[in-house]
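If it is no trouble, can you show me the amino acids of a protein and the tokens describing how it folds?
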Amino acid sequence: MTDLAPQELRVLLAVGAEGGFSAAAAALGMTQSAVSHSVRSSERKLGAVLFDRGRSGATPTAAGERALGHARRVLRLLEVMAAEVRGVGAGAVVGPLRIAAFRSAALHLLPRALERLAVRHPEIAPEVRIVREVGPGTAGEVLEGRADIGIATIGTTSPVPSRLVGGVLVEEGYALVHPAGHAAPRSLPLVDWTENCTSYTRDWWAGQDWLPSATVEAEDDGAVLSMVSSGFGMAVMPELSLIGAPPSVQIADLGPDRPTRSVGYVTTPELAKSLAVRALIRELRAARPSR
């Protein structure tokens, strides 16, 4: 097989992003026939059909989705190579650093680490995207080549995906949160949100006779905390989500058998060796949040 050239990878990504050959050609400043020829050449080299062609455009096949993820990661590695080579001459770690994080990690885990990173490596330019930690979540962003590193929930029920590497940064416990001063908080409705728990935590919930099924599904942990603060109900929330909680809520310990959640980082084996990713991991380990 002949290797694909970087321009061929860019064409594949443009077709995937634009949903068709004509739109990809316009985005790249190429003719449609040149885009079609490039895609056919890539498919021939890879030995697989990458796009389903139809009147509505071009849709990646399963093989195409995998190819697009690899294409993003390969092109990103070329960018990292160029940045690190420039950095050697300047005696610095330079270039953009793409980070995917779920909301509470972006609010309470990343800022101190990024502050420390800016002091030590001012030439690194972090780009942070907030990603819901459901389905593929932040790990999916890394696998698809859209992020260099993801802040993810990991552990026995949410292991690091096989094609990634990672490690735990924070072990956080869950607590009961309810309106301050309420005489019978466990009688309140339960407020929850989709990202809240792994299956391990759900198993713990199932064994709690006092804990009812959630009657309200909020958009995120901020909305849950706001509802609890206004007296609407109670919630079971992890420690990261409770940093900076208002005085109108009360946080109660759930005891030694309370569920916990592991928050860590995931990246590709190749990017784990890059200077910028290594620098951020060091700062994440050093900058532990406090309630």
Observations:
- The mean pLDDT is 90.
